[in-house]
Design goal:
The complex is a heterodimer of chains A (115) and B (111). In chain A, a hairpin with a 6-residue loop joins β4 and β5. Helices cover 0% and strands 49% of the residues of chain A. Chain A is built from no helices and 11 strands. Chain B is an all-beta fold and 111 residues long. In chain B, the strands form 2 sheets. In chain B, strands 1-9-8-3-4 form a 5-stranded mixed beta sheet, with no helix packed on it. Chain B has a 4-stranded antiparallel beta sheet with strand order 2-7-6-5, with no helix packed on it. Chain B is globular and about 40 Å long. Chain B starts with 8 loop residues before the first strand and ends with a strand. Classes of the chains: A mainly beta (115), B mainly beta (111). At the A-B interface, β4, β5, β9 and β10 of A face β4 and β8 of B.
């Protein structure tokens, strides 16, 4: 499978715990994006990487959220001190720089439930 | 960013054509119109994009009138597997790095 992969697919945690999600983009896609989607809503942009550089962050990404892409390949999204409001689907997308930004390839998402 | 308005939901039957209209009254000169499809428990999937007139691919057609203040996604002869949420997005093709999704249109295809 050469699509975007995300792990884990589901995560249940207790309030106050830290969680980390991983995204493996399509090989050679140098752009990587994170989005958050709550029930009944469209995805909301969180952050964007061009290779290993984090170039843009949404205000949604509070100081409890951090994302990395250390070698310009896979990326991780960490949420510290989780809150019930963090329960959502976290989506990763990638695209090659040869594509316009509006053609992004999404992974299946990681569904987070904070109890 | 141009705001988009689309119906919340639509019902259809297998074999029918489904047309979803999106309004984007304040679309800018450089903006393109892009549509994504999302199945339950999956990430969105790019369907089609266009700037003006008509664009057709193996999945859908996109009709854009001359004033570009609206666009219509047309899904020919839908099947049950076309049941999904369809999002209309408007933005500049080469600028900015984030997709801005609205609430989408939930299409239910019935047998």
């Amino acid at each position: 499978d050469t699509g975007v992969s995300q792990n884990p697919r589901h995560k249940i945690t207790k309030r106050g715990q830290n969680v980390t999600f991983r995204c493996d983009p399509i090989s050679e896609h140098n752009r990587l994006y994170w989005y958050r989607q709550t029930l009944g809503q469209g995805p909301e942009f969180l952050t964007y990487f061009q290779n290993e550089a984090q170039l843009e962050k949404s205000r949604l990404l509070s100081d409890r959220f951090s994302a990395e892409r250390p070698k310009g390949s896979f990326s991780t999204l960490e949420i510290q001190r989780t809150e019930q409001g963090d329960s959502a689907m976290y989506l990763c997308a990638s695209s090659p720089s040869s594509h316009p930004y509006n053609e992004q390839f999404f992974g299946p998402g990681t569904r987070l439930t904070v109890l | 960013l141009a705001k988009t308005t689309q119906p919340i939901s639509m019902d259809s039957y297998e074999g029918q054509e489904v047309n979803i209209t999106c309004s984007h009254n304040n679309i800018a000169t450089n903006d393109y119109i892009t549509w994504y499809q999302q199945f339950p428990s999956q990430g969105p999937r790019f369907i089609i994009q266009g700037y003006k007139t008509k664009v057709t691919n193996e999945v859908a057609s996109l009709f854009i009138p001359a004033d570009r203040k609206s666009s219509t996604l047309s899904l020919p002869r839908v099947s049950l597997s076309d049941t999904a949420v369809y999002y209309c997005l408007v933005g500049f093709k080469a600028a900015g790095n984030k997709l801005t999704f609205g609430g989408g249109t939930r299409v239910l295809v019935k047998p």
